[in-house]
Amino acid sequence: MIIDTHSHLYAEEFLADRTEVLHRAEQMGVSAILLPNIDVQSIAALEQFADEQNTCIPMMGLHPTYVKENWEQELATIEAQLFANPARYCAVGEIGLDLYWDDSFLEAQKEVFQIQVRWAKQLQLPIAIHVRKAFEELFEVLDREWAPQLSGVFHCFTGSKEQVQRILKYQNFYFGIGGVLTYKNAGLAEVVKEIPFDKLLLETDAPYLAPVPYRGKRNEPSYLMEVVSKLQETLGLSAVEIEAQTSANAIRLFGLEKFLTFEHA
User: Fold this and answer.
1) Every domain of the chain and the residues it spans
2) Chain-centre distance of CA 217, in angstroms?
3) What is the per-residue pLDDT across 203-217, written as a single tens digit (0 to 9) for each?
4) Distance, CA of 198 to CA of 154 (rounded, Å)
5) What local confidence, expressed as pLDDT, does residue 120 receive?
6) Which end of the chain is more exposed for a tag (fewer CB within 10 A), N or C?
7) Protein fold of 2-258
8) Contacts for 49-56 with beta carbons within 8 Å, 24 or more apart?
9) Cβ 180 vs Cβ 158: under 8 Å
10) Which residues pair with 93 in a beta bridge?
11) By three-state DSSP, how is residue 10 classified?
12) How far apart, in Å, are the Cα atoms of 143 and each of 42, 63, 94, 147, 193?
């Protein structure tokens, strides 16, 4: 059993062959796919897809790169969606900070992130964190908002060994590992060795960041086997051990037993 903890399968990149993509994922043993929201415009497609596929569980949040001049209006719509039926969602996400392309909305991103973290604490939901070129700024907010009940995942983690240790101090936070692990010069394999096995999650971030040998192509959940294979090489563990532990981790963090029946959980 494999769980893809972060995939945008509802995106337009999959309109032409989504059924085939799901079939390939099922053939590879992918038992559940978690779907982070991006902004107000993505809600309709996300909700429709989640309604159609009972193994695909939605999140709800506002992605940092979509925090623009109208962020208060966007956030109000996201809040209404989340609080109307919080039991529908496995996490508040995808939220965080991103300064890779543009830092002009940093203060707004920090405020939006902080607000959504508070929602998560109120609703007792984990958070799915997107962070790029903004670890210190994000830690600043998390240090202020941290509480023992707060949990979550650093999605698509590509940080340093030092950042691993910093994150572990938050106690209930996990590390989403995907295709970047397979990139020759990424250096992530050495960092992954520092992450406790009970804090690792598998993810694709499909359609983005496809693993080798598919790098540069559209990513999809069936490609998780390439990530599992690289983890085998890196950690010296079997595929069965990696799949079982990462799935147990995902079920525990996201409370997936509320959404799905797992025969081998």
Assistant:
1) 2-258
2) 20
3) 999 999 999 999 999
4) 14
5) 98
6) C
7) TIM Barrel (3.20.20)
8) 49/9, 49/10, 49/18, 50/10, 50/88, 53/22, 54/260, 55/31, 55/260, 56/9, 56/32
9) yes
10) 128
11) coil
12) 30, 20, 19, 9, 25
| DSSP-derived secondary structure for 97-136 | EE-SS--TTHHHHHHHHHHHHHHHHHHT--EEEEEES-HH
Strands 30-35 and 56-58: parallel
How far apart are the C-alpha atoms of 66 and 108, rounded to whole Å?
11
Torsional class of 30: left (φ above 0), alpha (ψ -120 to 50), beta (otherwise): beta
Starting from the edge strand earliest in sequence, which strands make up the sheet with 152-154, in order?
92-98, 127-132, 152-154, 173-177, 200-202
Residue entry with tokens 């020759």: 184
| pLDDT given for residue 214 in this prediction | 98
Output the CA torsion 204→94→78→45 (10° steps). Answer: -10
Residues linked to residue 128 through DSSP beta bridges, in sequence order: 93, 153
What's the average pLDDT block by block, 10 residues per block, for the chain (265 residues)? 97 98 98 98 98 97 97 98 98 97 93 98 98 97 97 97 98 98 96 98 98 98 98 97 98 96 56
Contact between 119 and 85 (Cβ < 8 Å): no
pLDDT of residue 262: 64
Residue 13 sits at φ, ψ, to 5 deg, of -60, -20
Cβ atoms of 176 and 154 within 8 Å: the answer is yes
Using DSSP's 3-state secondary structure scheme, residue 176 falls into strand
**Start-to-end C-alpha separation, the chain:** 9
pLDDT of residue 232: 98
